[in-house]
Amino acid sequence: MHLTSSILWAVVVLLLFSMAEMRRAGRGKGLKGVRNGLARDRWRGNRRHGRSGAARLLPPNCTESLQSRDVFLDCQERGLISIPSSRSWSKEPKHLLLARNRIRILRDGAFAGFEGLKSLDLQQNQISVVEEEAFRGLWRLKTLLLQHNKLAMVSEEALIPMPNLQYLRLYDNPWNCGCTLESLVQTLQVPSNRHLANHARCTEPLRLKGKKLKQVDTEFLCQDSDQGPQDDQTDPSEPGKPSGIQGKPDATVSCHAYLYPEPRLDCSRRDLTEVPSGIPDDIVHMDLSHNSIRQLRARDFHEARSLRTLNLKDNDLEHMEKGSLSGLLHLHEMDLSDNNLHFVQHGVLEDLYFLSLLKLGGNPWVCNYSIHYMVYWLRLHPGVRMSGLQCRSPVQHMGERVEKYVDSYYLACPKEAQRSQEEHEELGDTDPELWESLLEVQGTLEENPEPSHLRGPQKYQIIRLS
């Protein structure tokens, strides 16, 4: 009897212990508690393997930065095929950079959560379709870059959600200027939209190929495409032919423009033989390095009045015309290294009031009288940091600093010879007989010390201003 009671008591104790363990596993909440416990275990496992929910939303290697109090999201060249989630960022972005990815389609509502955007860079993707409500909610957007994609058609409705859009770039897309593009073209041609799609051109049909969307007569967009081959031929002399074929290359086609962190035009390694035309007026940095440009012509940069840096390194540059750099009043840095310059023509540098850095190395500078202008200009602008100005020829001055050569030139030149040379330069190519008569008159004036009101009238009067 006593043994039976002991066994029963032991069984009861075991049952109570088992129930306590079950409550501890489920936190005393029954099935709900067990589920919570399993969820916690799953979360711990994910955390241990680096797979938290927040981490799954982050696009690969995108970075945030702060410029002028605005948040920039840089997702350029990340291999993205879709727009990243707006829930991934610590602060609301103002500028979204998605250039050089593999995005093909912009779906309706693609930018949900990015309503605060001021600029959106989608250039150099593979975008061929933009749905009508792709930009829904972007009412603050001011700049949209869609150049260098595969767009043949976009409807006017796609622009309606962006009433504050000021700059739209659509060039280097295969635009099909048919009836489906009529509403977009009409919108672009409204006078108030003067900064929208200025350089975009038709690719099809052949009769409109090369014509700017801004200049297409909308009455011809819906013409029947089966009018016959004679109507589809383009006259090579037509003004609608692309300027890049007729003359200078077009910067909007030959180069890539970037917004971040400042407007920049990359024209490097494009096999250019001259400075392209159509440089956007807001470009701050321009890279023309590693091309085959042999000459800078007058007004080459007359449209680029905002430029602060200009890189012309490693071209075949031999000559810079006077006026080739005119208008670059804000230029701070210029790189002319590794070219074929022997000297710089008088007056070329006169507009560069704020230049602070000038790179000149790797050029075959010739140390003769033609090089004096460069040294003279540099001494008048002591704030310019210069490098690489060394004599390549003649042999006796090879490797010598050009400034040292110029100093030695004047030290070796007698004062009287300098004076006679200066007088000769002032009169230029004056007729020798006139030159002698002027000297005679000057000598007469110098010999006559009387005040002018006591002397008789003179036929000539020479005033020399130094």
Short structural summary:
With 466 residues, this protein is α/β, with parallel strands linked by helices. The chain is built from ten helices and 21 strands.
Helix and strand layout, with pairings?
Elements: H1 2-26, H2 30-48, H3 53-57, E1 63-67, E2 70-74, E3 95-97, E4 105-106, E5 119-121, E6 129-130, E7 143-145, E8 167-169, E9 175-176, H4 182-188, E10 202-204, H5 243-246, H6 251-254, E11 256-258, E12 264-266, E13 285-287, E14 295-296, E15 309-311, E16 319-320, E17 333-335, E18 357-359, E19 365-366, H7 372-380, E20 385-387, E21 391-393, H8 402-411, H9 415-427, H10 432-447
Parallel strand pairs: 2-3, 3-5, 4-6, 5-7, 7-8, 9-10, 12-13, 13-15, 14-16, 15-17, 17-18, 18-20, 19-21
Antiparallel strand pairs: 1-2, 11-12
Explain what you see.
With 466 residues, the protein is α/β, with parallel strands linked by helices. About 18% of the residues have low confidence. Helix content is 24%, strand content 13%. A 7-stranded mixed beta sheet has the order 11-12-13-15-17-18-20. A 6-stranded mixed beta sheet has the order 1-2-3-5-7-8, with no helix packed on it.
